[in-house]
Design goal:
The chain is α/β, with parallel strands linked by helices. It is 47% helix and 12% strand. It is built from 13 helices and 9 strands. The strands form 2 sheets. Strands 2-1-3-4-5 form a 5-stranded parallel beta sheet, with helices on both faces. A 4-stranded parallel beta sheet has the order 7-6-8-9. β1 (9-14), α1 and β2 (44-46) form a beta-alpha-beta unit. The longest helix is centred in the middle third of the chain and has 22 residues, at 145-166. It is elongated and about 75 Å long.
Length: 345
């Protein structure tokens, strides 16, 4: 998937200065080791420059994880943690962030080895709300090294989606077909998510398609489609037109995405599309979707957005399907009903 981001999480341990700093250091090391044993080591970066106990440390850690190329943040409470500094770290980090905390490790060491990170997490949550800072906090955010490693891995899909939306441009062609109010998409809500939108006329798309009529790349795309379809290539005569359309969309994306890194498309497939382009675009749409560039039908802008979010989360091709009809009773009785009979009957 070339059209979705890869999340790299900077793990920054924090410590309240009335607790031993070694608690946060050792627990951070254990967390990183546990993650690398179970998951891809490239997902994370261990901030070694300091344990954040003050605002100065916060600035140092922030600069370090930015320099390391981190686009996501995990604030790890090795002990109670400094409420102000840790929430300022989240506030000033430009990207998705999460908070997790270390559980107590041994019943034999609840004096010097006690960290109170559970209580610190409650205070961190309150401080984040006071500052209007959005951060992901797992349902139960306190655990040992392995637990916290799992929490960070579960955060990755969320991080990809947040990063993707902040760098996404949706390209649409034409208004919705008549009677498709279900595809209504107020633009303001896209801006609220950090998504850009470029709305175009179908006539602009048609002109660009015509300009690609003798594109020298068409034969190569046709060959790729033939290999893709295999025995399913039932109408080979239409492939040149489909290849022409695919190149039109890809060139439009490259020329119009501007400063955004990622794109998706909200297009149309009827009624005028078939009579003017002389084909339906479904196959081309699916090819782009398979590359991580979702293409929704009937200028369903929110649908394209939903597909893109699903792609970021799953790292798989995502599409929306209509529930067009019910199942006839006879079909249900003959082919489906038996599959739903309880085994004990």
């Amino acid at each position: 998937m070339d059209n979705i981001p890869k999340a790299k999480v900077g793990i920054v341990a924090v410590s309240r200065d009335c607790f031993p700093e070694s608690l946060a250091v050792n627990r951070r090391k254990a967390l990183v080791e546990a993650y690398k044993k179970k998951y891809d080591a490239e997902d994370i970066y261990e901030c070694p420059i300091c344990i954040v106990e003050s605002e100065i440390h916060m600035v140092q850690a922030l600069e370090d994880i930015k320099k390391a190329g981190c686009n996501s943040l995990c604030v790890f409470l090795g002990n109670f943690g400094p409420e102000i500094s840790e929430t300022l770290l989240a506030k000033h980090f430009d990207g998705p962030k999460m908070f997790v905390a270390a559980a107590e490790e041994s019943q034999d060491d609840l004096m010097d080895g006690r960290g109170d990170a559970y209580c610190g997490m409650l205070n961190a949550s309150y401080n984040l709300k006071l500052r209007n800072v959005g951060a992901y906090i797992p349902e139960y955010p306190v655990g040992d090294a392995e637990d916290c490693a799992d929490m960070i891995n579960e955060f990755l899909p969320i991080a990809r989606a947040v990063i993707g939306l902040s760098n996404l441009k949706i390209i649409s062609f034409g208004p919705r077909p008549m009677n498709f109010l279900a595809c209504n998409a107020p633009i303001k809500q896209l801006y609220n998510l950090g998504v850009e939108i470029e709305e175009n006329s179908e006539l602009d798309l048609f002109e660009s398609f015509k300009n690609h009529e003798n594109d020298k790349r068409i034969p190569d795309v046709v060959k790729d489609m033939e290999a893709d379809l295999g025995a399913g290539n039932k109408k080979p005569g239409i492939l040149a037109k489909l290849a022409q359309y695919e190149l039109t969309l890809l060139d439009w994306i490259n020329e119009h995405k501007g400063y955004r890194k990622f794109t998706c498309i909200a297009g149309k497939c009827w009624p005028a599309f078939q009579t003017q382009f002389h084909f339906v675009p479904c196959y081309v749409n699916s090819r782009l979707t398979g590359r991580g560039i979702p293409v929704s039908c009937e200028v369903d802008i929110y649908g394209a957005l939903s597909e893109y979010i699903g792609t970021c989360i799953s790292e798989e091709a995502v599409t929306l399907l209509d529930i067009n009809n019910t199942v006839p009773r006879a079909m249900y009785d003959e082919f489906i009903k038996e599959d739903f009979i309880p085994e004990d009957k």
